[in-house]
From TrEMBL:
Root EC class: oxidoreductase
EC number of this enzyme: 1.1.1.100
Pfam families, per database record: adh_short_C2 (PF13561)
Alphabetical list of InterPro entries matching this protein: NAD(P)-bd_dom_sf, SDR_fam
NAD as UniProt keyword: no
Gene3D superfamilies: NAD(P)-binding Rossmann-like Domain
Protein name (Swiss-Prot/TrEMBL): Putative 3-oxoacyl-(Acyl-carrier-protein) reductase, Short-chain dehydrogenase (FabG)
A GO molecular function held by the record: 3-oxoacyl-[acyl-carrier-protein] reductase (NADPH) activity
Source species: Nostocoides jenkinsii Ben 74
Length: 258
């Protein structure tokens, strides 16, 4: 039998929020396809365990802290000598971020920091390495809520994801001739701890949302990981500044099947 190399064989990939949900599925998928993975998260026990299992590296990193983000990419570069892929994915969706009428400034700021400022910090930190190499693929996790409005608001979350989407587009355009691609992953609702926490206690809330998804189900983290793998690999070599929707059809729907 002929052994095929992995789809990102030998590439070095940094994944933030790599200990749970979409990040975790992606770290596993990247490793399966031959990448050296650098996992960044706050969950040190799980992170160390994962790094050992996958033969990668774990770095404790609060993505909202500039010094910790700079250190993350420095460790990745110092360990492996290059950085090919940055999946800037860590994010939060806390219950105190709700309707604009009920969301105070503290709740607003916390979500902006972890979801939007973090992506600015990660892109700013990784770009010099990629510019030096004249190659790289950055994937930032936005969301379908960056392009669709909801009456069931999480105002800071939606605004943060809109910011991630615009920033990604701009960076994709700016660095297109330097060999660096920058794309946004826009997941629909995905079955992860983040979503489960939101709907666990309230089946009616989940059903209210599912009715808008043509496929009639939430996505799975592995389905996001496959999309991220495509954006990370050379298979997507003519794609940049893209809004990559992986959403079960939600953004294309008007009336959904019964
Ligand atoms: P998750 O809660 O399962 O995982 C998020 C991970 O990020 C956790 O391991 C957590 O420890 C880590 N994290 C949180 N704050 C951090 C910080 N300050 N620094 C470093 N790590 C931190 O979430 P998920 O559902 O996998 O979400 C991943 C991304 O996808 C997020 O940006 C989220 O907004 C986005 N997203 C999720 C959905 C969904 O339905 N689940 C839909 C659209 C977009």
């Amino acid at each position: 039998m002929v052994e095929r190399p992995g789809r990102i064989e030998g590439k070095v990939a940094v994944v933030t929020g790599g200990c749970s949900g979409i990040g975790l599925a992606t770290v596993r998928r990247f490793a399966e396809e031959g990448a050296k993975v650098v996992i960044a998260d706050l969950n040190d026990d799980l992170g160390a365990q994962l790094a050992e299992e996958l033969g990668g590296t774990y770095v404790h990193c609060n993505v909202a802290d500039k010094a910790e983000v700079d250190n993350l990419f420095k460790v990745a570069f110092d360990t492996y000598g290059r950085i090919d892929i940055a999946f800037n994915n860590a994010g939060i969706s806390p219950p105190e971020d709700d309707s604009i009428l009920d969301t105070d400034l503290e709740a607003w700021d916390k979500v902006q920091l972890v979801n939007l400022t973090s992506v600015y910090l990660c892109c700013k930190a990784v770009l010099p390495y990629m510019l030096e190499q004249k190659s790289g693929s950055i994937i930032n996790t936005a969301s379908f809520v960056a392009i669709l409005g909801a009456a069931t608001s999480q105002i800071s979350y939606s605004a943060s994801k809109g910011g991630v989407l615009s920033m990604t587009r701009e960076l994709g355009v700016q660095f297109a001739r330097e060999g660096i691609r920058v794309n946004a992953l826009c997941p629909g609702p995905v079955n992860t701890p983040l979503l489960k926490e939101l709907f666990a206690k309230d089946a009616e809330r989940a059903a209210r949302r599912l009715i808008h998804v043509p496929m009639g189900r939430f996505g799975e983290p592995e389905e996001m990981a496959n999309a991220v793998l495509f954006l990370a690999s050379d298979e997507s070599s003519f794609m940049t500044a893209n809004t990559f929707l992986v959403d079960g059809g939600i953004s294309g729907a008007y009336v959904t099947p019964l």
